[in-house]
């Protein structure tokens, strides 16, 4: 009799999942995975703004901002305010292999236009960043010269810094937050210089297939002072300048070849811990999330994402592709797992749009990743940050 009852309950649970599309009981995996079966009778929940309103309308209209966000002339208008702003840094003359990331900001924006096609509600994170508390705008691109790297790097720093020191529109934090669309990874050096002007030395989470802490004499040979600053050395310079909070910063997704073991020693001296791409095979996404959170702790964090952290199957349009990377799904899961960290700013880099597929695989992946980053920022205001 007991066997029949257990068998009957199993059939009931299976039928529930088959018919209704969700399990009969809740299954927990972190905070973001399977939801429990909805009860037949329940109190009406508090619904997010926009729930049940018109979606999928006129998605091809308007100017090409990130996800159809309002455009603000932030540099021309000194009174323009925001809590979170997207900016572009179209610079790619620090790359060592394939150029084209100067077209990254435009490509990512184009890949983002369907992000709020169905309303923009982020189901795993339970937030609609487009209609929550934050005023979010797209400021367009920093004016960046293609003729002089030193001058361009200064333009990026001071263009970012001007907006960083604006008073936030609604938040009670001291500074707004900026999400930068690159651009090759050299741009992270001037961005960290700007961040330092507001926060001092900062903890860094760096998603990439490469270390980017090489000494200039190793990466490129430092043929000149300006050649010494490129997308493989910028973190070395940042460490030398005291921009990075050593011991609380971490790379994730690393799988590059090296000049030798001394590159790891140099990386440690620069202040970074490492999670290798292959670690996902043994500790999974949950283990990677745990390791990252353990390293950065409660510190303010800057997030830098090189699209080549993804395998070229998921992001072929990049300057220095490396096989053996993570999938888009895995990276998005890991980023969502960082919910609650004190994220003060972010960038995504090395999207070399001319190498993308006709289906915009890389641009769409980059846009979706920054949707997760934007959601992190909205879910964690910085009101408690000193």
Automatic annotation (TrEMBL):
This is agmatinase. It holds the Pfam family Arginase. InterPro entries: Ureohydrolase, Ureohydrolase_dom_sf, Ureohydrolase_Mn_BS. It is an enzyme of class 3 (hydrolase). Keywords: Hydrolase, Manganese, Metal-binding, Signal. The keyword DNA damage does not apply. One of its GO terms (biological process) is putrescine biosynthetic process from arginine, via agmatine. Mn(2+) binds at residues 185, 208, 210, 212, 306, 308. The keyword Manganese applies. Its cofactor is Mn(2+). Residues 1-21 form the signal peptide. GO terms for molecular function: agmatinase activity; metal ion binding. Belongs to the arginase family. Binds 2 manganese ions per subunit. It comes from Umbelopsis ramanniana AG. Its EC number is 3.5.3.11. PROSITE patterns: ARGINASE_1 (PS01053), ARGINASE_2 (PS51409). It catalyses: agmatine + H2O = urea + putrescine.
């Amino acid at each position: 009799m007991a066997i029949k009852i257990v068998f009957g309950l199993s059939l009931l649970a299976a039928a529930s999942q088959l018919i209704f599309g969700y399990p009969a009981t809740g299954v927990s995996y972190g905070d973001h995975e399977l939801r429990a079966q909805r009860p037949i009778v329940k109190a009406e929940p508090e619904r997010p703004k926009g729930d049940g309103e018109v979606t999928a309308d006129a998605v091809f209209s308007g100017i090409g901002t990130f996800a159809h966000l309002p455009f603000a002339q932030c540099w021309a208008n000194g009174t323009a305010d925001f809590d979170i702003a997207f900016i572009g840094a179209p610079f790619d003359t620090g790359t060592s292999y394939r150029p084209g990331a100067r077209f990254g900001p435009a490509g990512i924006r184009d890949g983002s236009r369907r992000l709020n096609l169905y309303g923009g509600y982020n189901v795993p994170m339970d937030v609609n960043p487009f209609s929550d508390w934050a005023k979010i705008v797209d400021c367009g691109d920093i004016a960046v010269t293609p003729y002089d790297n030193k001058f361009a790097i200064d333009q990026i720093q001071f263009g970012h810094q001007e907006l960083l020191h604006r008073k936030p529109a609604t938040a009670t934090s001291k500074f707004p937050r900026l999400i930068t669309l690159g651009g090759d990874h050299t741009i992270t050096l001037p961005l960290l210089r700007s961040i330092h002007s507001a926060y001092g030395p900062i903890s860094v989470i760096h998603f990439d297939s490469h270390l980017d802490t090489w000494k200039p004499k190793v990466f490129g040979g430092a043929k000149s002072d300006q050649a010494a600053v490129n997308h493989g050395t910028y973190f070395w310079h940042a460490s030398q300048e005291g921009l990075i909070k050593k011991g609380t910063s971490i790379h994730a997704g690393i799988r590059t070849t090296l000049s030798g073991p001394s590159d790891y020693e140099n990386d440690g001296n620069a202040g970074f811990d490492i999670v290798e791409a292959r670690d996902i095979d043994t500790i999974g996404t949950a283990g990677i999330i745990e390791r990252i959170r353990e390293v950065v702790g409660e510190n303010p964090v800057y997030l830098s994402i090189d699209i080549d952290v993804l395998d070229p199957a998921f992001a072929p349009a990049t300057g220095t592709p490396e096989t053996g990377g993570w999938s888009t799904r895995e990276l998005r899961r890991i980023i969502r797992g960082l919910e609650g960290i004190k994220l003060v700013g972010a960038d995504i880099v090395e999207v070399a749009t001319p190498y993308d597929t006709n289906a915009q695989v890389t641009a769409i992946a980059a846009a979706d990743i920054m949707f997760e980053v934007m959601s992190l920022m909205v879910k964690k205001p910085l009101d408690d940050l000193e």
